[in-house]
Amino acid sequence: MLPRTFPARVLCYMHRSLSRWTAALFIVVAAATLIWHELPLTANGKLTVRFLSVGEGAATLVTTPSGKRILIDGGPDLTALEELGRSLPIAARSIDLLILSHPHADHVAALPEVMKRYRVKSVLFSGVGHTLPRYQAFLSLIEQQQIPIIIADPTEDLSMGDGVMIDVLWPPDAHSSAFPNDLNEASLALRILYGETAVLLPGDIGFASERALLSSGENLSATVMELPHHGSRLSSSTDFLLAVHPDAAIVSSDPEGQYPHPHPEVVSRLGALGILLLSLHSTGTATFVSDGHHAFLSH
User: Fold this and answer.
1) The whole model's pTM is what?
2) Which among 48, 36, 83 has a CA at the least distance from the CA of 298?
3) What pLDDT does 181 receive?
4) C-alpha 167: how far from its chain's center?
5) In terms of domains, do 60 and 20 share one?
6) Which residue of 19, 45, 213, 249 is 20 to 30 Å from 260, comparing CA positions?
């Protein structure tokens, strides 16, 4: 008995049905993938701080409980821009607050490109002068785009309107006259506060600024901290670490780079105090999440 065959029109119908099912399956899979990617990046009623893995530099993305976005520093190259794209929802085209700790190349590099691709609503920095080309491009874009400027002032905290506060700790004055010849020591140091939790971002300050902050009586305590100056030997003194008393310390560095941070002396001090050290070089971008009472750190 000969095998049964189907008329051409039936085969055509089966082909069209199969194509429709394939297209539908593709759409479902694509939608599920998009939701899987986007859902963790949207506002969830919690404070989310992403320490972006940018090598020998620094860049941190903060998302407040209501979805406001704060970017602190822009790393040493355009890696920060790539990490930002991975850390924001696809539809996100604005940054509510852009903060520059100080105008060194490893902190400012990607910021001009960020300002071209995202609508920046305001900028917080010290206003210190410097001739670095990327910093000059940053200042030019502020002027061209008429972005409102906030000059850092330790006497005035900045409220994000949803329970998150930015506590500027350092420098002590608008033009960083405390250390006029040292941009590192004149870095913005700030705490991101939410409920009972806090994140300390001390920029590239060293022993001198740490001592000044300790003498000022400022509250330095934090749940998690970024190591000052990438964990260089002349930073993260024992007294400073005791005052901060964090559960964990984050370091953004390249152990194989020009400056192999963190320095072994800093690592030793952290170990002696029982502070967990997370190196973004090893873990990739790390994420701190807080509901104001409880917090966790993942990578």
Assistant:
1) 0.84
2) 48
3) 75
4) 16
5) no
6) 213
